[in-house]
Amino acid sequence: MPHTPPPPQGPDPAAPGPVRVLLADDQLLVRGGIAMLLNSEDDIDVVAEVADGAAAVATARELKPDVVVMDVRMPHIDGVEATRRITADHFSTDPDGPIKVLILTTYHLDEAVYAALRAGASGFMLKDAAPAELVRAVHTLARGDAWLNPVVTPNRLREFAARPEGRLPAPQRLAELTDRERQVFVLIAHGFTNPEIADHLTIGDATVKTHVSRLLMKLGARDRAQLVAVAYQSGLVAPGSVPPARETPTG
Question: What is the pLDDT of residue 11?
Fold first, then answer.
């Protein structure tokens, strides 16, 4: 008796579908480039593109995407307020799978990012990030995890989201700094640039950037100016003091 092949199998109804993404950015070229990038992935589907926060809220309410990739600064309603509305408890019909928002920003952890995190965003990404990083971020948020710059931990994300506006970081956070971070902190307070810090401590430029990012993270400061203020307010650096002597290279 001849063998009869089994009928072709249809798609597995239990298999997860592609990640459905809504893009919100008022710059057409940026939005189009992101859409092209994400749509080139087999498991990501850009379901809509909008140019302002009000349209993002309305479209998210209608289409219920998995992830909204949201610019911060847009007309009518900015990305912060749009995020607040999209992540509100009453917005999603699926409490086990609420819509996730990934904030796109030009500046690392500025006040707009803090506000967006407080509003319910699940993470943020710099606009100059590598394309592959954006793809990973979308997948990460779709799984229910947070996406941050590598030096920012999920616990720190929650602290950022809860940090009140308008307050300088608490001086007691200085206890969390390593010896090298403290050295970099002092030199920042004395007005050193990153290349000058690298030369003074005989370390690489990339290492300095990492230390500065960690200082911003640990102290919850939005920029170098706040770091300088904390250094003087906490007594780490006294007015009129001179910077420490340059380290002598070993070897």
Answer: 45
User: 218: helix, coil or strand?
Assistant: helix
C-alpha distances (whole Å) from 105 to each of 97, 125, 128, 182, 233 are: 25, 6, 9, 28, 30
- Domain residues of the chain, as ranges? 19-162, 171-233
Domain covering 19-162: architecture: 3-Layer(aba) Sandwich (3.40)
pLDDT tens-digit map of 200-230:
999 988 888 878 877 877 787 766 767 777 7
Q: Give the separation between CA 21 and CA 47, rounded to whole angstroms.
A: 6
Using the predicted structure, report yes or no on whether residue 13 has a pLDDT greater than 50. Answer: no
**DSSP structure string for 151-206:** TS-HHHHHHHHHPPTT-PPPGGGGGG--HHHHHHHHHHHTT--HHHHHHHHT--HH
pTM: 0.58
19-162 and 171-233 share one CATH topology? no
**Between 48 and 191, the higher pLDDT residue:** 48
The domain over range 171-233 is classified in CATH as 3.90.550.10: no
